[in-house]
């Protein structure tokens, strides 16, 4: 009998691209809060979500340097299977009366992270992401976490730059970021290939993320700069900033072993 | 309204990791026919398929240097979105009384090919694949298609070598390969993350590939050598050869816009 | 005693990044002939070369899909060590009264090709290069070599697109390209790090390429389109086209085991 | 006039693969002290160095997660040009009566680091290196620096795994590592291609590293495990451990703008 949480399912269940949950994550984040054209934000929402009229166009861009593992943690001893970097954009929206966060575009640099994202409803593609790191030693190269320090993130896909963001730190942050704080809702989606069914996906459902062991540390805030570059086969640049908010740097950890399906969507949504 | 055949669905439908079918493919193939331990072959079959008792253990390993596009062919003018390389193993099996081909393990080097494979039921992971090419000029480096020429394929994933194959050409092949000739059946699979549902995938169905515009050319045959290396998190080496058959080099083209779901499988299969 | 043509030199001499010559090459070429701003061309010449006043600004951009090996050809059986792709720009210049070709900028996608280029005086950096391929089978994806077929090349470095070129084939070419035909002269250069010597390289010499076994085949010609994109840390876009010439597709093979040092340059050149 | 410290030299001097020194570095290190077969260590020494007879076979393997920049630090805002990972082996030797460190083999994952290494006499090739990171948040995925924590490094080149090392932390280290502590001596080497000169490199000199602003922090020590895997075209596995010493994790920063040439070597050395 074949075993394994994801393909390829195999006799011993060791070959799966994504092993079974729970999945544990730790990451260093750059969060750049901003506002895009409200019409552009409305245009990326699935029809089950509505624009957040009280603060239209509210977005955040996030660059994350991740490490992740399953319960046994064996990935940490073969870190090519544990580490990945990610760039994504979130927008705020309403689900009924509830303020939520929705992720229209996201890129990661490893296959297991792409597949694990799809399972959670993140619309991941592969990209190349780089993020300034801090080292705990005095050096011009160390990017220490001090007032005035600048941390940058870049993202690319298919050999095109997609984004460049810079956060300039000012001080420890009393409150942390807010644009990505509302509960996250995604759309899980898996197409059909049968003739006549290309517009009727096999999986098409609005989901609400669930997580546990959420921990946040070392939150600093300051100013933010962000460029989103138009490139063929991407539409993220329609969400380019019209106004910037604060920038943040922080460390975050959490775990995932569950997901709530909120609505089965009609195929035209 | 969001558009697009696959994630991310977007206002203009240009961002999808996989654009809508039809998909057209052309590839240079190395096909290495062999036999593995029959028990190992039986162990990779989904329960809807049975071992091919008349010739137990029959397998083939394939290295393919692909180029693909949609109808407009725009990917051919941005070839990072058209080209990919692939390594996969197929085994023979019975579906009822019908001899079929089944692919337990496959690696590709680009995200669009991974996602397009999942939609067709290929259990793709990312890898690094390299295949000797031929050039139409006399040179020691040109690997021209002549008797005695040797063509190699290598595959790796997560920085481990998975496979090394060599085909030594003898002559144009009157019949072409047979181990991968029976109709291809895959299992489309997409997991659930909801607690308690990890063993009940959202999509789990036996499918039969459909294609058109199939063209084959320049088939040569000769001898084959193949090594499959055991590595952590892979189980393909259980299908290592116990006996080699012929090796082939050929060029193949085909198109896909359909798929037949043959059975909805129970989750334990 | 340590052995090996290049670093790392080792007890058995097997570890060198570049094995000893001769080196054999076969490649599929896209050649895009054009003219840049003559001042921009003059500005990239070492002082030992002078602008080609009879046809100022004459350049070519080349995308090449290479396979290479040493005498034993073992690299062809481990093709990750044989294959690479390359994008480069050449300009025409005068050495005394002799019309020559000079390469100011070049990118390759493998380390052995970078190092082998430095040894020959090519100023190589790493990049990501993709080039449309042809397959010998009727398919929309096959890019067959026929009138009207379009072949593209792209180059990127540090996650920025550098160049996009397209050649549209018209007919077999009676004469082949001319902008890259004059003898190639490079500058071999290797810096010093000793304090006070940063401007006095250890190697700084004008060289003339030597090769043998030159073979060319399947030359087609047509029209050419080329974009060179300005990016940080690159200056190639100063050589962007002001006028396009013909485009070519061809296959070329040659071998190298020699180089002529023409002048030892002063460090300020 | 062309400008730039390294190729490609260009009108504005912005295109060089390696900008002019000083170069500033910060890195998180895993240092695995061990002893190899003394004959194997003697065999990798250039003839100007002699085996360290008082403690024969003494080696260390190092995995480093680097960030580097020039004085202006602009690379830190485009971190693809600042960050790289490195794996290298050092052996102890005598230069006259002086105990020194010599690096026979080293791999990095970025072109600027490869070229900058060559200039300093490090025999760099490209590889793929991964190193467990620590995150300052409680999580199973965070690999916090505590007694019992395990940090791993892996290295690969040409799709083959070269090395796997694990350090298990026990306690803050009072003294830090010693196998890599003696002054570093390298051999700068740049070949000739002129016929008859392949064995007479243009640059072949014993050099002594110079650095400033050396800072070390957060030194922990514990036990170490190391595997070096034999692969084609590499000879590092001859230096596999016969006995392990301590393992260390630490953060290190330093700057480089100078190098001392100690001896011009004869070509046969």
Rg of chain A, rounded, reads 19 Å
Q: Assign the structural class of chain A, choosing from mainly alpha, mainly beta, alpha/beta, alpha+beta, or little secondary structure.
A: mainly beta
Stretches with pLDDT under 50, minimum 5 residues of chain A: none
Query: Separation of termini of chain A?
Result: 37 Å
Could you give the order of the helices and strands of chain A? EHEEEEHEEEEEEE
For the record, what CATH class of chain A applies? Answer: Mainly Beta
Give the overall average pLDDT of chain A: 97
Helical residue percent of chain A?
under 10%
> Strand-residue fraction of chain A?
over 45%
Q: How would you sum up the major sheet of chain A?
A: 7 strands, mixed, barrel
Strand order of the largest sheet of chain A: 1-3-4-5-10-11-12
Number of strands of chain A: 12
Largest interface: C-D, 64 and 65 residues
CATH superfamily membership of chain A: Acetoacetate decarboxylase-like
Total number of helices of chain A = 2
- Please give the domain count of chain A: 1
Instruction: Name the shape of chain A in a single word.
Output: globular
CATH topology of chain A: Acetoacetate decarboxylase-like
Oligomeric state as shown: homotetramer
CATH architecture of chain A: Beta Barrel
GO molecular function (chains A, B, C, D): lyase activity
Pfam families (chains A, B, C, D): ADC
Protein name (chains A, B, C, D): Acetoacetate decarboxylase
InterPro entries (chains A, B, C, D): Acetoacetate_decarboxylase, ADC_dom_sf
């Amino acid at each position: 009998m074949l075993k394994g949480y994801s393909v390829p399912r195999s006799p011993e269940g060791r070959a799966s691209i994504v092993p079974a949950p729970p999945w544990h994550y730790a990451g260093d984040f750059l969060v750049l809060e901003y506002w895009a054209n409200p019409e552009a934000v409305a245009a990326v929402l699935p029809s089950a979500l509505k624009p957040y009229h009280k603060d239209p166009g509210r977005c955040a861009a996030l660059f994350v340097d991740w490490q992740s593992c399953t319960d046994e943690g064996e990935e940490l001893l073969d870190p090519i299977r544990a580490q990945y970097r990610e760039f994504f954009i979130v927008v705020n929206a309403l689900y009924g009366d509830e303020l939520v966060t929705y992720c229209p575009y996201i890129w990661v640099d490893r296959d297991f992270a792409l597949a694990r994202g799809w399972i959670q409803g993140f619309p991941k593609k592969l990209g190349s992401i780089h993020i300034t790191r801090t080292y705990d030693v005095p050096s011009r190269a160390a990017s220490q976490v001090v007032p005035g320090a600048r941390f940058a993130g870049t993202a690319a896909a298919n050999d095109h730059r997609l984004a460049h963001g810079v956060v300039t730190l000012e001080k420890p942050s009393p409150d942390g970021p807010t644009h990505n704080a509302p509960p996250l809702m995604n759309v899980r989606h898996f197409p059909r290939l049968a003739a006549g069914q290309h517009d009727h996906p096999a999986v098409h459902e609005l989901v609400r993320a669930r997580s546990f062991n959420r921990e946040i540390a070392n939150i600093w805030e300051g100013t933010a700069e962000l460029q989103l570059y138009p490139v063929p086969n991407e539409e993220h640049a329609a969400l380019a900033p019209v106004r910037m908010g604060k920038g943040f740097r922080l460390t975050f950890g959490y775990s995932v072993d569950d997901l709530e399906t909120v609505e089965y969507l009609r195929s035209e949504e």
